[in-house]
Amino acid sequence: MNIVSRPWGHYKVLKQTPTRVIKILHVYPGRGMSVQYHKYRDEHWKIQSGEATALIDDHWWTFLPGHRVYIPRNTLHCLRASNGHVRVFEIWEGEKLDENDITRISHDYSGEWGL
């Protein structure tokens, strides 16, 4: 499968079924994803390398390699590389598994990549 570039880094889909998508995310140092939520999917993250800072609902957390995070649907969240490059294993589970199930609340990339 192809590598998909984003302003915050890039990802690659490793496997996709009707109810699950498995990805590897690479977040560049000092970059982060938009503050967002999803209506139709839950997400599971496992930090593979680096130090990540994540917003989950209204609290910021720091995650190190080995940490696992569960993000239920309709939960406000974002992930940032707080100290160097971050690699995250991500699993989506739900009934609608596509990139269009993103409601962005805010992001740092106005005009970049059509966001």
Provide tags for this entry.
single chain, 115 residues, mainly beta, two-stranded antiparallel sheet, globular, disordered C terminus
Instruction: Work out the strand percent.
Output: over 45%
**Average residue-wise pLDDT:** 91
CATH class: Mainly Beta
Helical residue percent band: under 10%
Largest sheet: 7 strands, antiparallel
Count of individual beta strands: 9
The first-to-last residue Cα distance is 23 Å
User: What is the CATH architecture annotation?
Assistant: Sandwich
Tell me the Rg in angstroms. 13 Å
The helix tally amounts to: 0
Assign the CATH topology: Jelly Rolls
How many domains would you count in the coordinates?
1
How would you classify the helix and strand content by structural class?
mainly beta
Overview of the molecule:
It is a single chain. This protein is an all-beta fold. It has a single domain, classed as Sandwich (Jelly Rolls). It is about 0% helix and about 60% strand. The strands form two sheets. Strands 1, 2, 3, 5, 6, 7 and 8 form a seven-stranded antiparallel β-sheet that branches. A two-stranded antiparallel ribbon has the order 4-9. A hairpin with a 2-residue loop joins strand 1 (about 5) and strand 2 (about 10-15). It is globular, with a radius of gyration of 13 Å.
